[in-house]
């Protein structure tokens, strides 16, 4: 295993705990899904960039 | 507006986050009738000399100018990793000829930071989007050679020792118990010897870190506006520079969602990883976690990504998976098919060992209402996304 591939102590155990929570807590998945925000579209960002570009050209 | 976008690489050969993001904004700006061009490098470790010519072509209607470079062949390969006289000279003429209104840099990594000064000298306003930690760290990721996280507040010697520790020479000496030999001042004097930079063991490793640090931090003062896609990246850079950094959340090109016809049915909870199969992405950690006997019974894990890029790492993963029937290495897929891949995933896991910035795959998964079990949980909340209520800590 390369140096960058070290398993730091506790990493996989902590992740395993989180995975177990989702598997074992029936309401958690639905709760997580309900909290997902709207994803910003590239068209929205480009309008913001245009405004920034225009500011610099003024 | 006549806009130049600068990215270290660009599709179709390069499709990581920065390249895809640059492609998406150039396409969207073009659609809004701007005169857009992209400048990138190509090759990088291919070609008979450092400068291997300039090719102008179109990629999906976007005019792209590609400078073919091979950094290994530069007179001083360690210097061109942060400042290239040849690139600076060429850019001066290019800017003079093209007369852009705006230059937006998403990555200067392969060009060197000298391009910022050339853009300023040409009298063109510039915007820099901080997509990674290249300005702070020569390995870009603020990840030490032992896998631990760094915040860049290091001495030049610490950086040099970190770089040298990941070289073949360190491996060689390390076998004989001499790795600590790099942890002293003789590295600084070695970095001043240009002929060493051309030797395999020192190429890309023995940088003049005092100079690099000073040069790149000073270069950050040149752009008219600095943008970041996350508060986290802003916070990290604010430890180094007292400059206004504006957070502008990145947008996503979502036309590929047309292929999504709803989540497929499964009697198991399906976890998934989507991305590069390389050590810093922490796929090995995810497999170790999933090997926990309490998990594997009523769930499964599909790992999507190119299995040919780092074959020794993939072999490590195969050994870790062993005979676990709940874990599958699924290989690469075309981005257009992301909708199909995500329709079979209930929970996306991002187990990266480095800080990450704003991984596109997380946002893309959120389009499908896939919650995300993120890697940052074991890092005392040091996350660029910790403000989200669905984020598990």
Could you describe the 3D structure shown?
The complex is a heterodimer of chains A (58) and B (393). Chain A is built from three helices and no strands. Chain A starts with 10 loop residues before the first helix and ends with a helix. By secondary structure, chain A is mainly α. Chain B has 393 residues and is of the alpha/beta class. Chain B is 29% helix and 19% strand. Chain B contains 13 helices and 13 strands. Chain B has helices at 17-31, 85-98, 114-121, 156-165, 168-175, 186-191, 194-197, 209-219, 231-238, 283-290, 311-321, 338-342, 360-366, and strands spanning 2-6, 35-44, 51-59, 62-70, 102-105, 126-130, 225-228, 245-247, 269-274, 299-304, 327-331, 347-350, 372-374. In chain B, helix 2 runs parallel beside helix 3 and helix 10 runs parallel beside helix 11 (311-321). The termini of chain B are far apart. Chains A and B meet through helix 1, helix 2 and helix 3 of A and helix 1, helix 10, helix 11 and helix 13 of B.
Which features does this protein show?
A: 58 residues, mainly alpha, 67% helix, 0% strand, disordered N terminus, B: 393 residues, alpha/beta, 13 helices, 13 strands, 29% helix, disordered C terminus
Instruction: Name the chain pair with the biggest interface and residue counts per chain.
Output: A-B, 45 and 68 residues
- Poorly predicted runs of chain A: 1-7
The secondary structure category of chain B is alpha/beta
Instruction: Give the strand content of chain A.
Output: under 5%
Q: Determine the N-to-C terminus distance of chain B.
A: 44 Å
Give the tally of β-strands of chain A: 0
Overall outline of chain A: elongated
Count of individual beta strands of chain B: 13
How far apart the termini of chain A lie comes to: 55 Å
The pLDDT mean of chain A sits at: 81
Helical content of chain B stands at: 25-40%
- What shape does the CA trace of chain B take? globular
- In DSSP terms (H or I, runs of 4 or more residues), the helix count of chain A works out at 3
User: How is the main sheet of chain A built?
Assistant: none
Number of helices of chain B: 13
Gyration radius of chain B, to the nearest Å?
Answer: 22 Å
**Rg on CA atoms of chain A, Å:** 21 Å
